[in-house]
Amino acid sequence: FLLKELDTLREKNKKLEDKLSEKDKELKTIKLDLELQERATEAKIAEKIAALVEEVYSAQRERDEAVMARLRLANEERDEAFLRVQHLEECLKELENINPEENDMTLQELLNRINNADTGIDILKNGAIILNQIHRTKERKKKIIAEEMNAVIEQRDAALYQ
């Protein structure tokens, strides 16, 4: 009887060991599945991080390009302004080099000189002389008008006083 029981116990023990082995295999399978899921999740996270980093780099490149474009434009504008200043300085020097005898010329003589000029510089020089004469004439007219107005006002005030 004991032998039978022992055999029964051995069979139960074997069945339990088999069950334990099966459960152990299931546990290992579950652990492997869980590990695979973790790695897949890590891969997805790494992929998202890589995409985000690429997006940041792309935005930085665009920003850098925009900054460089603005710098180039500012440099071009500075260079153009510098060239305009140089041109104005040259024009001013030309105006300063105008002969005083030319100031006494009549408008018709200056226009004839422009018509007979061979170069653009001569045209510019004579045109500057004409503009200078026009400006001085306007200033003289303003002075004369102001003096006449003052005289009229003084006469009126004197008449009112009497």
UniProtKB/TrEMBL annotation:
Keywords: Coiled coil. Residues 6-98 form a coiled coil. This is Mirror-image polydactyly 1. The lineage of its organism: Eukaryota, Metazoa, Chordata, Craniata, Vertebrata.
